[in-house]
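Q: How would the structure tokens look for this protein?
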Amino acid sequence: MADIVLNVEVRERTGTGGARDTRRAGLVPGVLYGGDKEPVAIAVRENEFRKALYTGKLLGHLVTLKHGKETQPVIAKAIDMHPVTDQPWHFDLYRVDAHQEIKIAVHLHFINHEASPGLKRGGTLNASLHELLVSCHADSIPDEIVVDLTGLTIGDNVRVSDLKLPAKVTAALDGDTVVASVAAAMGEDTTETDTGAPAEAAADEEPAAEEDSGEG
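A: Here is the predicted structure in token form.
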């Protein structure tokens, strides 16, 4: 079961006015969705909510909702913050079974930049994805998925099929989907090696061409 427990209260008032009153009382308003039950308006003490949020394991992870003596495994799918005060403003929780197969986006963590020859040459890492949609049990959601950049040169791609996923976790995207690529830095000439050999060959052939024309 999850490490984080959210003690919730059921809100009697909903709508803009109800949410405003909830915040004035020092709570964060939210809604519990999912399962075969109707949505329920809930609230969590702001200090408790912030503490859970700062662990980094609230959004997109299995947590335990507690109301009185009742508990329920849930997943936080959305958390809204006030754009000015950065105060937790609203959240959405979804009921799940701990062993239920779900699809969820997991953060990608790029490592070993210094072990990429392409990046060491001044290349640029272009990340096409910052999260990966995966399929797994609700109690097996990984904290992150590592993208190893070791050995990548200019023009190389990392695809979904290249990623090493935790046990019992599968990607919910096509394996050929590009996760990231290493591109040449602006203004860098990457054709020098390719064009050098033909140019030298052409130079070698010029004297022979001149001799032919002389014989004619």
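The first strand starts at residue 5 and ends at 10.

Residues 192-216 have pLDDT under 50 and may be disordered.

Upvote if useful.
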